[in-house]
Amino acid sequence: MDPVASAEHLFAERYGRRPAGVWSAPGRVNLIGEHTDYNDGFVFPFAIDKRTTVALGDRDDRLIRVASTFSPDVVELHIDELSPDAVSGWAAYPLGVAWALGEFGADLAHVRGVDLHIDSDVPVGAGLSSSAALECAVALALDEHWGLGFDRPTLAKVGRLAENRVVGAPTGIMDQSASLLGEHDAGVFLDCRSLDADVIPLGFAASGLSLLVIDTKVEHAHSTGGYAARRASCEAGARALGVESLRDLHVGDLARAQEVLDDETFRRVRHVVTENQRVLDTVRSLREHGAGSIGPMLDASHVSMRDDFEISVPELDLAVETAQANGAIGARMTGGGFGGAAIALVIDALVPVITKAVGAAFAEHGYRAPAIFTVHASQGARRDA
Ligand code: ADP
Ligand code: MG
């Protein structure tokens, strides 16, 4: 069954009537620019061909009910009771978005309630941002259904606010921007300070290239531990160097940074500063020389995350090294780190070779079998029916 028919069917099964509409939003893969978003820097993700759908039905009262194929429960809340603390668990994402729309000025006093049913083929916790796919699908669905008229950059901020305040994960704006602004065969080059976004053709298919995702299945937890610690290090580094954010530093400033900072903070700073430069280099190289030229930036990004930012894990390193050793143009871990996925840019003909080699290497190390699949740059959030 196609995703729209399936979303309508699942809605009808759960709520006993047909939905009024179906919206969807994609997950994303970050080509390059890791942990730069909350440092006001540059990122270059693209929306992928895996999506979260939201089927929406009107109600006569002011309840919002949310259900997902991932969960047996239907969670409900009165619109007047929306608040950052009103709900926990997965329902914090959709209900958090409803609350956040109000924070951005939507007049929710007169809208009617809705029933939402959520379905998705975005793998959860694989570094492909199932969370942003969910937020953005719900944000666009509620915006259009309620006639709120927000533009997409604002809806991205709505999703981020929901994730930051209601879910409690201190994430940046990248994921939501990719999910809302992505286009077919293009990446979203985003300046996280100005929020200026440039949609840049990738031309992977035209160059005979595929982007392989290697999901290590190693669990990561964004909202805890490592992520918050890295963020704190970046803030401490910026403070010690007298800049508003690490965005304000350039590669030429690193010698001074090394004198001022302790070794660990310096390495955290060096990752962010060089990663920003690598994003700029990637975009320029892509424009000037095509997709086949961006490998060295991907490879260097991985080394920086492994050694300076220290957010890789052995499974990610093995995935990257095996892909590189078997002919990948470039490879790196992607996402927040501590697990999740690696990506490899690969000549089409080598996809089966690298898939097999990575699988074999994982087996040899006694690691859990990874999920390996290609992703294609796809259209951002949209109404499907
Ligand atoms: P990811 O890297 O996939 O974004 P996160 O931990 O940020 O990982 O977000 C995953 C969480 O988002 C899940 O644990 C769940 O709470 C919620 N989520 C994502 N997709 C769905 C879905 N289709 N249905 C219900 N909850 C979902
Ligand atoms: Mg997430």
TrEMBL record:
Which superkingdom does the taxonomy of this entry point to? Bacteria
- What sequence ranges are listed for the domain GHMP kinase N-terminal? 94-182
Tell me the InterPro entries matching this sequence.
Answer: Galactokinase (IPR000705), Galactokinase_CS (IPR019741), GalKase_N (IPR019539), GHMP_kinase_C_dom (IPR013750), GHMP_kinase_C_sf (IPR036554), GHMP_kinase_N_dom (IPR006204), GHMP_knse_ATP-bd_CS (IPR006203), Mevalonate/galactokinase (IPR006206)
The enzyme's first-digit EC class, named in words, is transferase
Query: Which residue intervals define the domain Galactokinase N-terminal in the entry?
Result: 10-56
Domain GHMP kinase C-terminal: residue ranges:
284-346
The residues the entry assigns to the signal sequence are none
- Entry keywords, A to Z: ATP-binding, Carbohydrate metabolism, Cytoplasm, Galactose metabolism, Kinase, Magnesium, Metal-binding, Nucleotide-binding, Transferase
Cellular component GO terms, alphabetical? cytosol
Pfam families attached here?
A: GalKase_gal_bdg, GHMP_kinases_C, GHMP_kinases_N
The record's EC number reads 2.7.1.6
- GO annotations under biological process? galactose metabolic process
Q: Which PROSITE patterns match?
A: GALACTOKINASE, GHMP_KINASES_ATP
One of the record's GO molecular function terms? galactokinase activity
- Which PANTHER family does the annotation name? GALACTOKINASE-RELATED (PTHR10457:SF7), MEVALONATE KINASE/GALACTOKINASE (PTHR10457)
Q: Which family does it belong to?
A: Belongs to the GHMP kinase family. GalK subfamily.
* Name of the protein this chain belongs to: Galactokinase
Taxonomic source organism: Agromyces tardus
Its lineage opens with: Bacteria, Bacillati, Actinomycetota, Actinomycetes, Micrococcales
